[in-house]
Amino acid sequence: MRKVFLLIILILVYCSLAAQDGLKSAPAFDGRLIPQEGRTETLVKGSQLDRLELSLFHSVKSVISAQTLDEIAALVQEDAKDAVSKEMDIVHGRLSYALISFQRSEAGKGRFLCFQSQEAEDGRFEVILVYMEGSTTIDNLKRKFSK
Questions:
Q1: How far, rounded to the nearest angstrom, does the alpha carbon of residue 3 sit from its chain's CA centroid?
Q2: Total tally of structural domains belonging to the chain
């Protein structure tokens, strides 16, 4: 039973890593920048996302230090260099919001990256990072997930 459980965990980790393949911000999703402890991660695939015109939704939410936030924000800004379209807001010298759309695949699948941060009461920062794939458009995402 333990071996089956470990195998399932390894498959889920591989699937979540493969989804962000090629993104500079991938370390924020795989635990290299945001430790597993204290973070909330959501990975959804399949028919549950049909109404959103998505095939994959992967989010990570955590409260992190200013240094970690700056590292993640720098990676997101690097990803934005490869964007087809992007919206980004800087507040007090730090990236606070980004909505990035990448080139569609040959099969027509879009790739999207969303980033949002806000200062917490203790001086750390709450960050939400979301990666999505699907047939939707950036305009549809804006309507469904407003700032």
A1: 30
A2: 1
Residue 142 identity: K
DSSP 110-122: EEEEEEEEEE-TT
Averaged pLDDT for residues 93-118: 91
Exposure of 47 by Cβ count < 10 A (0-12 exposed, 13-18 middle, 19+ buried)? exposed
Confidence of residue 6 (pLDDT cuts 50, 70, 90): very low
Q: What is the mean pLDDT of the chain?
A: 84
Domain assignment of residue 103, given as a range: 2-144
**33: alpha, beta or left, given left = phi > 0 and alpha = psi -120 to 50?**
alpha
